[in-house]
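Hi L., both proteins are below.
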Amino acid sequence: MRIALISTNTIPVPPKDYGGTQREVHYLTEELVKRGHEVFLFAKKGSSSNATRTFEYESNDRKEQLDFIIKNLPPNVDIIHDHYGIVAKANPPIPTIGQSHSQGSDSRIQIPVYVSKFILRKYGKRRGYAVHNGIRMDDYTFRTTKQNYMLFLGRLIKKKGVHLAIKVAKETGKQLIIAGTLNDKKYYNSKIKPHLGKNIRYVGVVGGDRKRQLLANASFVLFTSTWDEPFGLVLVESMASGTPVLGFRKGGVAEVLRGMPQLLCRTTSDMAEKVKNRKRLPAARKLRRYVRTRYSDIILTDSVLKLYQKVLDNNLYKIRKNTLWNRRKAKLLGLR
């Protein structure tokens, strides 16, 4: 197949630190190439890949980026997989999948895809498809022996529930390391900073080997989100490292942990109780095997290719006349 993958213009592919969407695009690109497909990647400047060709956006303006894609899209592309949104909303005369990595999708997108069945049902109104995220197993360090600290990894905002992770740490008396981007200073100053000290530390943004080591050495990862998480990539990253991750039944969390119900919690007290009774939870090797068989980049690519074939075989894409794509292309060609 000849496949065009559209990434965002926010973070290069692959990302150095934070960048879940861009990492998914990277995994998919590399695995599709390994399987003999021609892949054309559109991504932010500084991106690198083994794609047949990588096109780097020349502008930060979305309209100009769409024009750039229209001008550079190779001929005879079989399918476009858009992780950005600008192409799927323009409705090109080519089968185009619009991948949503958050809760919503635009009604103009003909083939919307979500990262969990929960999001497809609740926010997609069952219109479209669900394909789970995947990770490359070799990107994560696996350890069976753990150190005596718990880890929170994510953005420091209220809906991520950092304050609840702190509550669990105090209830169990265990050390907590908080790592992630500080997105809400008011929340940080009122709910996090007053509790920092010897047992509760904030170490800032982490990525690369530092992130891998924190995940692999933690006794637990606390996933305390209080909103409808579309998927929860940290859940998978933790288990791939052999580290039990405890999460609330919100959004796609229960779906990701469907085969590991022991890791689901009702309250912070329930979470603290599970921390105190580690022996009742799955062993490190079982956690990693769970990820390999459900959420690896291999499984991700298998699922995506099945969807591509379904779209192409069943004519799910209906060509629309006078689309934004056609109007922009006509303007670029000087036809109007």
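That was the first. Here is the second:
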Amino acid sequence: MTRPAHASDPTQTLLTLLDLDDLGGARTDKDVFVGPSERQPRHRVFGGQVLAQSLVAAGRTVAEGRHVHSMHAYFLRPGDADTSITFGVERLRDGRSFSARQVHAYQDGMPILSMITSFQEPAEGLDHQSPMPEGIPDPESLPSTADLLGEIDHPVAQYWAYDRPVDVRHVNPAVYVSASGERIARNAVWMKTFSPMPDDEALHRAALAYASDYTLLEPVLRRHGLSWITPGMSVASLDHAMWWHRPVRVDDWLLYVQESPSAQGARGLGAGRIFNRQGVHVASVAQEGMVRLPYLDGPS
């Protein structure tokens, strides 16, 4: 389905989100940055946005040439998508090869996310990877989100169809509005930005963190026959861990293969591996999320 003529370039929206203001180098006991929030139909900050912006803030404080290789983050409070976010970066350590940073994202003086992340200079060493799954259809043969949701007259459907900066195409039948397929704890999507990105490895890694938060809990939903519009269901990301293994470009197609090894106690775990189209394993991700259903809720 063709994007509406009036629609702005969503990739440019992503680049604007990642262009943080350093307030002229202002510092307290931390480096301080401010970033905008992305418009959301439910007025709640998308978790991937805060992850990506936190990585950009941390990266601004490390030596040139050191790229993020891992991060571990906790979502502490829902964010307000109508309010900017302040990022405070603490310089934990700078070694010969590695730099460690702690980032807190704030709104109204309260932390909404806490992250520790590590950066490394390029180095030679042992090298192996898991293989990319075989038999996956090409992304061009799969329907886009706009194809699936573009005719639905609802703000969330229209936002997902036309305003998200990443083109997401499901290998398994999408669980946007129904989950009538096989109940398996697996999911796979192709994804890439709609337009080219600058040749900046740090931006590509941050953008991949942004996109990694889209579908990682879908294996939990698929396993139990749930869709994103299941009545009364409440889903929220609790934490997010990510490891970058090799250079990546998010403006080329990436295959995101996901599974859920466990769900229990109103929580579900999603784990994912990301491959480029040539089969190179570029990143791994894990996330636990709250998944509450009204007919299963116990005491809070």
